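Input.
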Amino acid sequence: MIVHHVRGAVVGIVAVLGIVIGIVITVVYMGYAPMAADSAPSSMEANLAMKAVHAISERQMGEVTNPLPFTASNLAAGLKLYQQNCVICHGAADGKTSSIAAGFYVPSPQFAKNGTEDDPEGATYWKIHHGIRFSAMPAFMHSLKDQQIWRVTMFLKHMDHLPKPVDRAWKATKSVGGMDMATSPKMDMK
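Output.
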């Protein structure tokens, strides 16, 4: 008797799961799933995505610390790399969002406003090295050497407590292509 009830429960669970999966597939294939970059993600989608990124980066690299010595020259090199590769999406000390970053479906964090100082260094390294799927964050493992990624990681970890010369250079960094540049200039077409 109990085996019959357990079998019925399992069949019922499998049937419900099959129906739910069928509905999801139907919604996707009929074009009802929101895929435009300007559509807002659901709170569940945003929550799950962030939890997944934090979980994998901290699981794989969370305990790893930066192998480079903490020096002003490494911080300055990290800032220079950040200026060359990251400012367009993550902003500069002025905190302005670029016109490119304003259009990202998954908003890129603006580090002058919400930095990464409290994140484990290994997790920050992982995100820069591997990138983040379904976002605009590329995998820099193809364009930067490990030492360069660790320097950017060091800069991000300490961006709120930099040595004076590096801090002055950081504060002088301006965001690229700010929102005020998003309008087209008037052209005389005569």
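The chain has two domains: 1-33, 43-179.
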